[in-house]
What we know:
Elements: E1 4-8, H1 13-24, E2 29-33, E3 48-50, H2 56-65, E4 68-73, H3 80-85, H4 87-108, E5 112-118, E6 129-130, H5 141-159, E7 163-169, E8 171-173, H6 191-199, E9 206-209, E10 221-222, E11 224-226, H7 227-242, E12 248-252, E13 258-259, H8 260-271, E14 277-280, E15 289-292, H9 295-301, H10 310-326
Parallel strand pairs: 1-2, 1-4, 2-3, 4-5, 5-7, 6-15, 7-12, 8-11, 9-14, 10-15
Antiparallel strand pairs: 10-13
Uridine-diphosphate-N-acetylglucosamine (UD1) binds at residues 78-80, 118-120, 170-171, 189-191, 194, 206-210, 220, 222, 260, 283, 286, 290.
Amino acid sequence: MPQSILVTGGAGYIGSHVVRQLVERGERVVVLDNLSTGYRSAVLGAPLVVGNTGDPETVNRVLAEHRVETVMHFAAHTIVPESVSNPLKYYGNNTCATRNLLECCDRAGVKHFVFSSTAAVYGIPAEGLASEQSPTAPINPYGLSKLMSEWMLRDLAAASALRYVALRYFNVAGSDPGGRLGHTAPQATLLVKVACQHAAGVRPGLQIFGTDYPTPDGTGVRDYIHVEDLASAHLRALDYLRKGGASATLNCGYGHGFSVREVLRMVERVSGKALKVEESPRRAGDPPSLVAKADRIRAVLGWEPRLDDLETIVRTQLEWEHRLQREPGLQKN
Length: 333
Ligand code: UD1
């Protein structure tokens, strides 16, 4: 049997886009997902094993049965304010489960590991701009839970033959331009998703969390990256590791930011609807501004984004919200 790629969290928002791209190019893929925030309907063209990355028995079995050569590890909790109110949930599912996964990979001789890290490892970078050399100083348990996983990966790679790419995601948004996949979870908290849910009539309104930040219009600034471009960075990382590339940690963003108000204006323009917006206090754990210095990933992986356009991000997200309304079955497991 040829070797496979294990995608943990492959039924989730980002993982499912990566699975689809991998399958489209003829890779053998197996998905491990506990369906806590993922959906069966999001796994297109690959077998799904329902289980936890923290469960050694399941992980060992999948690694052996599918002759896994590469692991792409997406499975995690990702909501910053929730990590502030429930930190142990994040250290358990993100850090401890990743430790288990790494131990299983080590035993099974997995060669390559692509890790979903986050811009949240930077905390509040100087000028709101973070390069891979910027100090890591997370301001919420989510960022710290991921940073600890980066450290485990670094140390394991130094002590074994495993090589890895850790991708530090900035703010992922948008949906498959082909309309097959999107961000499905109705309880999502991400700005673009929430605003598009509201524009599509699923939510009665939305809040702006903080209007007194030291940013040009007082609202938070983020580097929004289209999920399809982010997914393609993972395929590049895989190719790089297969060619013998050294372990690397890379920012994954476009290198420019938009404020909350700018995003909401775009949602109004694309949807043709006036949004009902309430100005609210700052949300726990949020940095004022977080934008990538994004040249290293281009140089190391040869990655070129194709959808670096806020309008495309919002349009594809909105189209997905409309599809979810037409097909509520997509949100049932
Ligand atoms: C997101 C990711 C996080 C990642 C980070 C990197 C998720 C759930 N979160 O967090 O994993 O580490 O990007 O930068 O994947 N906002 C509002 N109203 C809302 C929602 C958000 O004003 O209803 C504001 C926030 O205060 C923030 C901005 O919009 O300024 C973006 O917030 P959000 O979309 O929730 O993403 P992050 O918290 O940045």
